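Researcher: Hi, I'm a grad student and pretty new to this. My advisor asked me to get structures for two proteins we've been looking at. I'm not sure of the right format, so I'll just paste the first sequence and hope you can take it from there.
Model: That works fine. Here's the first sequence with its structure tokens right after it:
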Amino acid sequence: MTFWSFFGIIYLLNSKSVKVSNTTITINSNNAAGIAFGGNQTNNTLYNVNIRTNGSNAPALNVSGNYVNFTMFNSILNAASTNDIYIGNNSIKGEWNLTNVTFVDILFSVGANGTLNVHWYLDVYVNYTNGTQVSGANVTIRDKDNNSILQTFTNPNGFIKTTNILEYAQT
């Protein structure tokens, strides 16, 4: 695994099981990503990472290389002058899981091959019209095609367990 910083960039090359958390990255240079992945990557995790880039051609996240796989939670990606996420044309067979990550746009280069899974947290509270919580209520969550994706019951306080819902997968 190689891990270094160059002009404010965190660059992960051929890394495995790296965790980056509770980090704010601000880049004011052109042609510099906040975090860049290269080579073969497995089981890397980014948690509570806030990336802001202000230069041209400076994505918050740059993904390039074979089998780049990572998970990102509870983060913000904000590239002022370009795409927030850039998937390079040499990205092959990667899987990128984003849960509760705020971003505006993504660029898949021609030839990029991988899957971006965008998830959000779902919290549900059930109450009667008088405001009293409903214990044991049967809650069914359905997708846009009316398929059931979750069936559960509320706890004594009227809540279901926080659930991770897939918004979309992009390949």
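Researcher: Oh nice, that was easy. Here's the second one.
Model: And its structure:
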Amino acid sequence: MHASLVGEKAVQPGEKRQVEVDIGTAGRTGVIAKAATVKTDHPDFAMVPLKVTVEVTVDLDFAAPVVFFQDAVAGKPSEQTVEFVAEDPGSVKFGGVEVTGGDAKDTGGGVKAKMVKTGAGAAARWSLVVTTSPKASGPIGGNIRVELLEPEEKTLQVNYSGAIKAAAPPD
């Protein structure tokens, strides 16, 4: 956590100022509590503890920012699924899904992605299903962009990566 005064000049006696606090929340959800110390030149309050508690919620995003193909083997299809988090999944509508980037080495087969809905109404759930059918071993990586249409228009992104393993030689 980093805390700093808003503005550039020193705070004069009796003057009020805001303290700006930055808390790194990337990849984190739930309650986060942090502490910092504000140093002053006041003889009775040289160091003032500052406690900040925030609740990080995810609304309309993927549960994980990366899809990793850990056990993918050349010649065999591999599938990974990432849950989509929404307060009301039943009201969500998607547009296109675009896979960009690509294989660092031509492993063939490419990467495909699609949004899949299971259930209905309050029980509805959305997942991003990412598949690859590599023909050769080697690294893969790129981005998947998903267009969200409702309840708001925005583009979401998930990265994918992995190392396609060579197939075992036939007996």
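Researcher: Is there anything I should tell my advisor about the second?
Model: You could mention this: The chain has a mean pLDDT of 81.
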